[in-house]
Structure formats: C-alpha cells, structure tokens
Amino acid sequence: MKQVYIPRTGGPEVLEVRERPDPEPGPGEVRVKVEAAGVNFADIMARMGLYQDAPPLPSVVGYETAGVIDQVGPGVVRSRVGEAVIAPTKFGGYSSHVLVKSEQAIVRPAQMSAEIGAAIPVVGLTAWMMIEEMGRVRQGDRVLVHSAGGGVGLMALDLIKRRGGIAVGTASAKKHAELLALGYDQLVDYTTQDYEEVLKKGPLFDLILDPVGGDSWAKGFRLLAPAGKLICFGFSANNGGGTKSNIFTTIKAVSQIPWLLFNPVSLINANKGIMGVNMARLWDQPEKLGGWLQSLLQLWEEGVIRPRVHAAVPFSRAAEAHQLIHDRANLGKIVLIPD
C-alpha cells in the first residue's frame, strides 16, 4: 500500500509517499481500499510539531477515509466485501488501505461519492457537537462562525440554518460573495477589519465558534449575549499562518489566552459559558460518534447538509494540499486521492 508520511517536522515539502506491505485484517476488522482521505487542520499542526495528540514521528496522520471494503477478518460476514463505506480512523488515514473495526465502517449512501464521504466525518461531527449537542441552536439565535469558508464553517452553516439561526462569519473578502450565496447572513473580512469592532455595534451573539484562540477568545467572550456560549475548537493562532513552527509565535499566542477572564467567578457574573471541542479525544466513544454520523448521512440524503470539496489532490502532491490550507485558499474540504 501507499502512505503519505510525515518523516519530520517542517513545511509541506517534508511530506513523502512510502510503500508498505498491505495490512491484513484481524478478528472483527475490515480492510478498506481507500478512494479518498480527508485533510484537516490538525494534520497541518501535526506536521509542524504543534499537535499534542499526534503520534510520534515518522507517522501517518488522517482521521477520515472513504472507500470500498476489499477484505474482512475473522468474525466479519463475507458479504461486507464490496461495500462502499465511510471509515473514520484515529490516524493512518493518509493510506491506500486502512484497517478499522467492522462497526466503524459505515455504509455510504448509494449516490454519495468517496470525495464527499471523506469530507464529512471530522468537520461534520465537530459541527454537530457544537451546534446540536453543546450550542443547542434555536430559531433566531445569532451564531458567529470563524473560518466560515472552511469545512467546519460550511457544515456549521447548514446546521445553523436547519435550526432557523442567523449565521455571521469571518472570512477573507474574496470568499464573501460565495459564502453569502450559500446562506451566511453577514460576513466580516478578518484580514482588514477587527471583527470585534465591527460586530459590537450590532446585536450580541448566542453562540460563537472559534478555532483561532489567543486574543480572539477574549474578543468573542465580550461579544456574547447573556446566556451565550463560546466554543473553542482549535488554536490556529499558534501557527501564525506560517508553514513551520515558530517558538515566538507560540509564546505570543499562549500569552494572549484570556486566562484570568475564563474563571468560575467571571463566568457566573457574566452569565456566559465557555466550552471546548477536541474530536480526537472522542474516538473512544464509537457509539456516540456513530449515531451522530448516521444523523449527518441522513441529513445529506435529505439535502440539508451540503459538504463541499474544494480540491481532490493525489498522494504524490500532498504538499499542495497542505499548502492550500496554509494559504486559506480553500472553500470547503481538501481530500487526498491515492495514485
């Protein structure tokens, strides 16, 4: 099989394709011949050496794949061979073949492509947890979504609109027209404007989804209405937009976290809530995640969620996939395709 390795920390150029023996499924496992593998910001952070949950290097990352079951292990019915599935993985997804437990290989809807299938699990489950489980968005709620043009931002938009919420996003100006057409009610260009200064002039927010961190969390806290919630689900400020780790950027980002603002007394007095989401720490909850994923697939079949693939990039050009995310050039998901 082919795998995209991170041999050492560095820029996108360090990624390399290696040949390894095809894995053999053990008891209760199936082998999936991968047709598409999702790329997530956590993968970029792992390559830079900034992701605490990443496996030791050299390693193969990747949380989500879609493909066809081509072999089953003992205890799995032979009829599963040939099934088109979505297969979440805890690392190892950048592979032409992956092994997963049989129950984790979820049958793909008949009309769903592998690219779309690989674009759903991580961003879909993250958005579902924030909108449905934690945020409990209701009719008329105002929701601020940072990185509105990313995979999570677009998935969150669909779930917000499903509940009758008002979606406000931050994104570079070049993405505004398309994001408005997709359903965002208002957008702020974070590259030229201070979003807090722009948005504090209007109604406050019931929910804010923030993967940026640093001083962005303090700004968001101030923009919350009473009973509002800020959900932190990333820390992109830690990389400062570069392709390699930088200790000075990290120190600055950590120093800007509003440690004193986020304490029990301040939360009580402000009547506000702070929550956190790290999907990598939920991979040991297969029943919960499986139920949410089935709900997302049903919503896709109903046309409610509209996962978008910005680009499908061959394994041999994986560096380009990572660079697209670094440059914030993507509107939707980036997926890798074995070649």
Descriptive terms for the model:
alpha/beta, Quinone Oxidoreductase, Chain A, domain 1, seven-stranded mixed beta sheet, Rossmann fold, single chain, 339 residues, 2 domains
What does this structure look like?
The chain has two domains: 148 residues, Medium-chain alcohol dehydrogenases, catalytic domain (Quinone Oxidoreductase, Chain A, domain 1), CATH 3.90.180.10; 158 residues, NAD(P)-binding Rossmann-like Domain (Rossmann fold), CATH 3.40.50. The radius of gyration is 20 Å and the shape is globular. The chain has 339 residues and is an alpha/beta fold. Helix 3 crosses helix 4 and helix 3 crosses helix 10. Helices cover 30% and strands 24% of the residues. The model has no long low-confidence stretch (mean pLDDT 93). It starts with a strand and ends with a strand. It has eleven helices and 15 strands. The relative contact order is 0.16. Strands 3, 4, 5, 6, 7, 14 and 15 form a seven-stranded mixed beta sheet that branches.
